[in-house]
Amino acid sequence: VQLVESGGGLVQPGGSLRLSCAASGFTFSSYAMGWFRQAPGKEREFVAAITNWSSGRTSYVNSVKGRFTISRDNAENMVYLEMNSLKPEDTAVYYCNRGSWGLSYSSSGYWGQGTQVTVSS
Are 86 and 64 in contact (CB under 8 A)? Predict the structure, then answer.
């Protein structure tokens, strides 16, 4: 299993970024996928997830609802996180995760290396 994130960077408050995660080594369309983030001195937290179902059901942490959008492209084995109206508190390393979905998203031990997002003026 390999997950490779990209797309992070420095952006001003109110700006936008699109993170990408390239997945390989497993049947991508069979798994739910998620994004997590970890700010300095804090624990890693859930950000968003998407099922592998045809409905493409999604879930978000309250703090990003209405600003972030998760999506996936099963043909390209990619998962994306579109981030708009970014705030300084969104600053963190963002990680892609392969997981599962029962009543909600459950993370697994498969993580990418992370991509740094810094929101600052």
Answer: no
Q: What are phi and psi of 24, to 5 degrees?
A: -155, 165
* Model confidence at 102: pLDDT above 90: no
Over residues 99-118, mean pLDDT: 92
pLDDT digit string (tens) for 51-80? 988 888 999 999 999 999 999 999 999 999
Compute the distance between CA of residue 109 and CA of residue 121 in angstroms, rounded to an integer: 35
Specify the pLDDT at position 56. Answer: 82
Please give the C-alpha separations between residue 80 and each of 40, 96, 116, in angstroms, as whole numbers.
23, 9, 15
Q: Which two tokens stand for residue 31?
A: 């798994």
Amino acid (one-letter) located at 73:
D
**Residue of 26, 4, 2, 7 lying closest to 86 (CA atoms):** 7
Interacting residues of 54 by C-beta distance below 8 A, sequence separation 6+: none
Is residue 91 within 8 A of residue 39, CB to CB? The reply is: yes
